[in-house]
Amino acid sequence: MDKVVHFEIPADDLARAKQFYGTIFGWQLQDMPMPGGRTYTSVRTVPVDDRQLPKEPGAINGGMMQRSKDVRSPVIAINVSSVEAYLKKIVAAGGKIVTPTTTIAGMGYYAYAADTEGNVIGLWQDLKPA
């Protein structure tokens, strides 16, 4: 069974959203530069280990980014064995690819897909240890 491992919250005003979630829930927020001059904010809801994985069983961390035409509402990310294989399954089942597979340096692969209801979901594939 594939599990939810990450969430993302899009925002029109990233500074305002960071203030809201950081103040209300006490989340730790850290900006990271992304390709194209964009900013991605890492969201820690629980402490992490040296591999950046949550220390608490069942807990997940997430991220925040500027709202886009493709990602209008919160997204859950599901850990899969192969992003490419799951994109094929999604398309075969009537969904569509929103954003093709992207490499996240040193971590893994990520893509956005839409289900048959138009909801955007994230697919995550861990890098295999060398």
Folded structure, characterized:
The two termini are 25 Å apart. Helix content is 17%, strand content 42%. By secondary structure, the protein is of the alpha+beta class. The model has no long low-confidence stretch (mean pLDDT 93). The protein has an 8-stranded mixed sheet.
Descriptive labels:
130 residues; alpha+beta; eight-stranded mixed β-sheet
Short synopsis of the structure:
The chain has 130 residues and is α+β, with helices and mostly antiparallel strands.
Secondary structure elements and their pairing?
Elements lengths: L3 E8 L2 H12 L2 E6 L5 E6 L16 E6 L8 E5 L3 H10 L3 E9 L3 E7 L5 E7 L4
The major beta sheet can be summarized as: 8 strands, mixed
Helix/strand/pairing class, anyone? alpha+beta
Number of strands: 8
Query: What is the succession of H and E elements?
Result: EHEEEEHEEE
Question: Separation of termini?
Answer: 25 Å
- How are the strands of the largest sheet arranged? 2-3-4-1-5-8-7-6
Beta-strand content bin: 35-45%
- Would you tell me the overall average pLDDT? 93
Radius of gyration: 15 Å
Count of individual helical segments: 2
Q: Give unreliable regions as ranges.
A: none
**What gross morphology would you assign?**
globular
Helix content: 10-25%
